[in-house]
Design a protein that fits this description.
Layout lengths: L2 E4 L6 H4 L11 E3 L3 H9 L5 E4 L5 H11 L2 E4 L2 H10 L6 H8 L8 E7 L7 H14 E12 L4 E12 L2 E13 L5 H7 L4 E7 L4 E7 L2
Parallel strand pairs: 3-4, 3-5, 5-6
Antiparallel strand pairs: 1-4, 2-8, 6-10, 7-8, 9-10
Helix pairs in contact: 4-5, 5-6
């Protein structure tokens, strides 16, 4: 696994809160859905949380202090970029599932997908979503962003948690790829077995969504 962090002490909400970021800063996104993701996980003692983006020090500290969680970081975005640079060979879906193979079914309380699915074709999205659903425990939650308009994607975004309801976005270069838009009906199909509990369309045209495994 790319990273594994274990935490044993949960701080109070007041101690864990990060000073708010000025709303005028363009790189900051305010979230209505992420607080509900946190609220679900906070009800579990020492939850297991999987982040499919790269390691971000501020995020490690935030989740450790707020949730006293075991955080597993699997940089699936790096696999997407490696496959884009060197197409051919093993299918991307094979590489993604192999990266997650050390995680047992029904062993995870929460998954943060961020915008990963925007960079995957339909078949790869289906394979990855099915695996993530199996990893989640009953009552587990999955959080992600899904673009709603077809476009050429030329950068990835590192989402840096600023507080319980905001992110700072740090873009970095990507091999250009076409976004494969997943409509609501597509999300319902590939995340079969999950319920959409929150869905908010942001001004950027991205849909912020929270799924729960009943």
């Amino acid at each position: 696994m790319a990273g594994l962090f274990n935490w044993h002490a949960r701080k109070s909400d007041a101690a864990a809160a990060v000073a708010p970021v000025a709303a005028a800063e363009p790189s900051v996104t305010t979230s209505k859905v992420f607080p509900k993701f946190l609220a679900t996980l906070s009800q579990k003692p020492s939850p297991v949380l999987v982040d499919v983006g790269g390691v971000v020090g501020a995020n490690v500290a935030f989740f450790g202090e707020r949730l006293a969680c075991r955080l597993v970081v699997e940089d699936l975005v790096a696999l997407v970029e490696a496959h884009a640079k060197r197409p051919g060979g093993d299918a991307l879906s094979t590489a993604l599932l192999k990266q997650l193979s050390a995680l047992e079914p029904d062993s995870v309380d929460g998954v943060m997908c961020w915008d990963l699915f925007d960079y995957l074709d339909r078949a790869t999205s289906q394979a990855l979503a099915s695996r993530l659903v199996k990893l989640l425990k009953k009552g587990g939650v999955l959080y992600g962003f899904f673009g709603t308009a077809s476009a050429e994607l030329t950068q990835y975004t590192r989402f840096i948690v600023q507080g319980p309801n905001s992110f700072r976005q740090r873009p970095y270069a990507a091999t250009p790829t076409r976004r494969h838009v997943l409509q609501n009906r597509d999300l319902a199909k590939i995340f079969e077995g999950m319920l959409v509990t929150e869905s908010v369309l942001l001004k950027t045209g991205t849909r912020e969504t929270l799924f729960r495994k009943p």
